[in-house]
Amino acid sequence: MSARVLVGVKRVIDYAVKIRVKPDKTGVVTDGVKHSMNPFCEIAIEEAVRLKEKKLIKEVIAVSCGPQQSQETIRTALAMGADRGIHVDVSGKDYENLGPLQVSKILAALAKKEDVRLIILGKQAIDDDCNQTGQMTAALLDWPQGTFASQVDFQEDSLKVEREIDGGLETIKIKMPAVVTADLRLNEPRYATLPNIMKAKKKKIDTVKPSDLGVDLSSQLEVLSVEEPSQRQAGVKVETVEDLIKKLRDSGRI
Amino acid sequence: MAASWARSGLKFCRNFVKPWSVEVWKGQAVGARRGITQASTERAGVNGFLHAPLQTFCEEESMMKDAVKKFAQERIAPLVSKMDEQSHMDESVLHGLFEQGFMGIEIDEHYGGTGASFFTSILVIEELAKVDPSVAVLCDIQNTLINTLFRKCGTEEQKSYYLPRLATNMIGSFCLSEAESGSDAFSLKTKAEKHKDYYIINGSKMWISNSEQAGVFLVMANANASAGYRGITCFIVDRDTEGLSIGKKENKLGLRASSTCPLTFDNVKVPESNILGELGQGYKYAIGMLNGGRIGIAAQMLGLAQGCFDNAIPYTQQRIQFGKRIFDFQGMQHQIAHVATQIEAARLLTYNAARLSEAGRPFIKEACMAKYYASEVATLTTSKCIEWMGGVGFTKDYPIEKFYRDCKIGSIYEGTSNIQLTTMAKFIDREYQA
């Protein structure tokens, strides 16, 4: 199979870090905070690498949009088995405004440029929880999409995707080229072994600018403020069911 | 001091020096987040060396440190308590160490190893020790003693046979100590008698780590007793060799998951081709390897202290007594800060010794200092951490008491503290001679 797969990997604040809101309420504290690859992106890379190991696809390209530090995330993807990386250099104000719409425009442009047959993304990022990039990318390219994938079966020119939906599991067949977004149960990502980390040093990372791809990064959204969720109030214990109903009525809940 | 390691550290980051160095220090330097401007990183110091804090890692060192941390927390941490209680290292941990490439860190890629630097081994050992010092010591012995001996002294045949195995599935044991010779290693009594083209080894060894799982044993035996220690030779003995028996595991206070057994050699026949290095040079190899192994143990003790500390501090922040966190009492704060300083000092000694070794500069005195200090700091830290945790620190439900038990061996094995101090004194004496 000569197919190329593009996998998006996003650099996000590590899931184990306690998030703090900046005092000026413009966002969260990111300086000096541990960052790592979005867990769903790890699952996406793992799926792509497995397809390559099964010899169903030829090349895995890892892409990340962001400042210089995004290259660390790409490097991790290379250590997991991706063949090469593309760093789309976005920094400063542009980076603050970078959202699913801009990223999907970039991914669509790259998909055309690199002659890609399959794009695998994580279903959502754990920092913004947007769950939009995959869907938007498919729409921009006019490609079919298999989102919330918990299983992907590669067939000659199409994919059988089992999706996790509210009611249970849905299996669809989509023609390639297509976009797939990975859900939690798609696979368990491998650890980057030390020898693979060393091998990753030799793999190439190309840097491109959004302007090179002809992408306009302007955003229609403006973040007005970011605040912490309100403190959880203590609960109250009641003695009887009657008390419970009375309390619920008094607080206007029923 | 710092400058020279910087050059060597960069040298060992190979082609990643130029494009990555500035970015690495801007983005990743641990403990050096502020004050590192573009100008200061690019400014060459005296002799053209760049000045960077000791805790600056090149990108692959950072990536490997993170990889080990993740693996240790996910795959080893849940099993630590069980392994300690049963005095048995779980197979999944052993497989995992090999799979992840932790057992062949400095072995060349050509032989199936990772092909990384000595400093990387130190980081790996430190990260493993934060979770389980028993696992760390297994990794340490394999990398700093066994692999190094084969790499430095092995013939091409020996290397081609053993290095790939050591990197993928074979554990090695280093057999020097005997019942009657610990610190006085050179007085070992195990003999090797020459017959035609083979040797017959008779004797016994004691306190041999990894021996329950080892596939190959590097045995120090004397092939020429009349020459004293100059007869000591290093023999490669495979596990299944007739006459080699592995005794019952010691029931230890700490590092219980690491197997420590006595060995008996009863007319063990070993071909001449199984001599590692040269006849009668074993004592030199042993000393040489133990100098590097010392830094590995320092890293283990350092990780132990840090892991223990990391587990204890959150407790002090949560525990409320007399209306405030116990962390907020000045008495506690001073103790905590004191211990944190000691750990930092031990870290710098260890990292510096490792960088010196990588740079090919003299490092023996510094390695002794690192091992001695790190083991003392580990003892202090674990003792204090139990006190800070109060009653719960004393129970097996929390990991602290295990660290306390594990740390004691640090000042004993791979050269007791007294030996380290004596060695340091010899160097100091020499330095100050007219």
UniProtKB/TrEMBL annotation, chain A:
GO BP, sorted A to Z: amino acid catabolic process; fatty acid beta-oxidation using acyl-CoA dehydrogenase
Pfam families named among the record's database cross-references: ETF
Keywords annotated in UniProt: Electron transport, Mitochondrion, Transport
InterPro entries recorded: ET-Flavoprotein_bsu_CS (IPR000049), ETF_a/b_N (IPR014730), ETF_b (IPR012255), ETF_beta_N (IPR033948), Rossmann-like_a/b/a_fold (IPR014729)
Location of this chain's protein in the cell: Mitochondrion matrix
Sample GO molecular function, one term: electron transfer activity
Domain of life: Eukaryota
Domain Electron transfer flavoprotein alpha/beta-subunit N-terminal: 25-217
A Gene Ontology cellular-component term: electron transfer flavoprotein complex
Keyword Kinase: no
Gene3D superfamilies, A to Z: HUPs
Subunit and interaction comment: Heterodimer composed of ETFA and ETFB. Identified in a complex that contains ETFA, ETFB and ETFRF1. Interacts with ACADM. Heterodimer of an alpha and a beta subunit.
Task performed by this protein: The electron transfer flavoprotein serves as a specific electron acceptor for several dehydrogenases, including five acyl-CoA dehydrogenases, glutaryl-CoA and sarcosine dehydrogenase. It transfers the electrons to the main mitochondrial respiratory chain via ETF-ubiquinone oxidoreductase (ETF dehydrogenase). Heterodimeric electron transfer flavoprotein that accepts electrons from several mitochondrial dehydrogenases, including acyl-CoA dehydrogenases, glutaryl-CoA and sarcosine dehydrogenase. It transfers the electrons to the main mitochondrial respiratory chain via ETF-ubiquinone oxidoreductase. Required for normal mitochondrial fatty acid oxidation and normal amino acid metabolism. ETFB binds an AMP molecule that probably has a purely structural role.
Family: Belongs to the ETF beta-subunit/FixA family.
Protein name: Electron transfer flavoprotein subunit beta
UniProtKB/TrEMBL annotation, chain B:
A Pfam family it matches: Acyl-CoA_dh_1
Subcellular location: Mitochondrion matrix
Residues in Acyl-CoA dehydrogenase/oxidase C-terminal domain copies: 280-427
GO CC terms in record: mitochondrial matrix
GO function term, MF aspect, one: flavin adenine dinucleotide binding
Annotated ranges, domain Acyl-CoA dehydrogenase/oxidase N-terminal: 59-168
Domain Acyl-CoA oxidase/dehydrogenase middle residues, every copy: 173-268
Pathway annotation: Amino-acid degradation; L-isoleucine degradation; Lipid metabolism; mitochondrial fatty acid beta-oxidation
Domain of life of the organism encoding this protein: Eukaryota
GO biological process annotation, one example: carboxylic acid catabolic process
Reactions the enzyme catalyzes: 2-methylpropanoyl-CoA + oxidized [electron-transfer flavoprotein] + H(+) = 2-methylpropenoyl-CoA + reduced [electron-transfer flavoprotein]; (2R)-2-methylbutanoyl-CoA + oxidized [electron-transfer flavoprotein] + H(+) = ethylacryloyl-CoA + reduced [electron-transfer flavoprotein]; butanoyl-CoA + oxidized [electron-transfer flavoprotein] + H(+) = (2E)-butenoyl-CoA + reduced [electron-transfer flavoprotein]; 2-methylbutanoyl-CoA + oxidized [electron-transfer flavoprotein] + H(+) = (2E)-2-methylbut-2-enoyl-CoA + reduced [electron-transfer flavoprotein]
Catalytic activity, EC: 1.3.8.5
Keywords attached to this entry: Acetylation, FAD, Fatty acid metabolism, Flavoprotein, Lipid metabolism, Mitochondrion, Oxidoreductase, Phosphoprotein, Transit peptide
Cofactor: FAD
Self-association state and partner proteins as the record states: Homotetramer.
Family, per entry: Belongs to the acyl-CoA dehydrogenase family.
Official protein name in the record: Short/branched chain specific acyl-CoA dehydrogenase, mitochondrial
Organism: Erpetoichthys calabaricus
Origin organism lineage: Eukaryota, Metazoa, Chordata, Craniata, Vertebrata
Underlying gene: ACADSB
